[in-house]
Design goal:
The chain has 317 residues and is α/β, with parallel strands linked by helices. The protein has helices at residues 3-15, 18-25, 29-43, 59-84, 107-117, 133-139, 186-189, 202-213, 227-235, 245-251, 283-297; strands at residues 48-51, 54-57, 91-97, 121-126, 144-148, 156-171, 183-184, 194-196, 220-223, 241-244, 257-262, 268-276, 309-312. The protein starts with a helix and ends in a 5-residue tail after the last strand.
Amino acid sequence: MDTRRLGYFVRVVDVGNITRAADSLHITQSALSQHISALEHDVKTRLLERTGRGVVATASGRSLYRYAQGILRLEKAARIDLRAGGDTPAGLVTVGLASYSMAPGLAVPLLRAVRERYPNIQLQLIQNLTVVMSQAVLLGQVDMALIYDPGYVKGVVFEHVLEEDFCLVSSARLPSVTNRGDTITLKEASRLGFILPSEVHTVRRITDAAFHAAGLHCSVVAEIEPGMVLRDAVVSGLGVTVLPLTATRAHFAPDEVRAYRFADSQLHTAMSLCTPEVQPLSEAAALVADLLRTLIRDQPGTAGRREPSVSANGVHP
């Protein structure tokens, strides 16, 4: 399978229009169409369907798209590694970071540490993908991912690195939402309007489950996926949210919000470093993983957490 054609195909799917994709690739539309046709002939199935506004991937096309991203990433990693000559750690290392967690707050410190210690390692940090992060690790789209532990996923290993306690976060511009100091009950919280991610997100599922268990309703006034939009909405006083304390520190300045612990419920989950179960990490990826573990241990507020442990094939501590 021609990796150049795979790259062309990925660009077409991303853009959704052959003409615009051809312009961005600096080739003619007819040449791009021929490459796509040759790829379809190679895999013996249709990969794209025309619509009134461009093209979309077929079911087979979506499947190939996911694999193509992993193949292209590995090809790029190999080229970087070979150019470096082998004297020092080198290569492309891709790290997935869970949204609405402490993970994005580690992005810049991780980049700084890699640049200082391993200048020949090219770091790629990703937060949004077409598949969930654990599946991205399985498909080879990313080397590792720092995510909320989703439970058993065949083919990947979860190394528990941190237990996260959730808190309620409200704008400092508004009056205190409780008279209990820095704590709040679920009943008090049920009177507030929440801004949360969609129902598939771990933060939302844990929040909904806590209110449901208490026989209460969580009033969601808005569902927001981009983290910066949620941050700005909360700071503006448009609603409250629920986040891990470490993520609150990462996303907000101290004077922007107030954080309240839940007095009558334990909302928490584990953060895990997700890696492939069978395929070993490259030397470069293993070094980056070690740096990531060190940065997590050095995070404020992580003292007293239980020691990290490893789980695979559904065996959890």
